[in-house]
Amino acid sequence: MQDADNYYVQALSMLIQKLKWIRHVPPDDISKMSSTVTTVVAKITNLIGQARLTLCMPGKRTLLELCNTAITRCFNPPLPPDLVFSYYISANRLVCAAYQVTPKTNGAQGLTVTVADCLLSQLVDVLYLTDRAVNVAQQFNCSMCMLKERINAYNHICF
Q1: For the chain, percent helix, then strand, then coil, each to nearest 5?
Q2: CA 74, 55, 59: angle at the middle one, nearest 5?
Q3: Of 55, 82, 103, 108, whose Cβ has the fewest other Cβ atoms within 10 Å?
Q4: Among 51, 38, 67, 58, which Cα is nearest to 11's?
Q5: Distances from the Cα of 2 to the Cα of 7, 57, 91, 138, 145, angstroms
């Protein structure tokens, strides 16, 4: 969730920054403005897409990485050394996985994995709105590209 939020914040910050910049661009410099807007909208679309991707497809971590995460070390009393927890969002579900090292009769070690999940109904809305934001940004980007081409064609004809 934090990773997705970071992408949303980056996209919003970039949008605010460039809107402030656009206010100071002279009206006769429409070519520069259209190029910048096209580039910025593409970057914002990418950031929103990255946010969606992190919600739908969580990053995979090794057991060693999980052992060293703050989530595993935050329990009081501490977890036994043979037990590791992992929490992550996958699409519209919160998933909790427990990994426990278990001894086998032949002296080797096995791994018992227990997984539980629950529906996060608010996340359905977040994913829908994220999809909608990506679609709107893509449509806007296409419109800006067409406008940019028309401006360039007009400038070529007039000058």
Answers
A1: 60, 20, 20
A2: 60
A3: 108
A4: 51
A5: 9, 14, 14, 24, 32
pTM above 0.85, yes or no: no
DSSP labels for 17-85? HHHHHHHTS-TT-HHHHHHHHHHHHHHHHHHHHHHHHHHHSPPP--HHHHHTSHHHHT-SSPPPTTEEE
DSSP one-letter code for 94: E
- Write down the pLDDT at residue 24: 84
What average pLDDT does this structure show over 45-53?
92
| Interatomic CA distance for residues 140 and 42, integer angstroms | 9
Q: CA–CA separation, 38 vs 41, rounded Å? A: 5
Q: How confident is the model at residue 93 (pLDDT cuts 50, 70, 90)?
A: confident
Q: What token pair was written down for 62? A: 């090794």
- The answer to whether the beta carbons of residues 99 and 84 sit under 8 Å apart is yes
Whole-angstrom distance, CA of residue 99 vs CA of residue 76: 18
In this prediction, residue 159 carries a pLDDT of 62
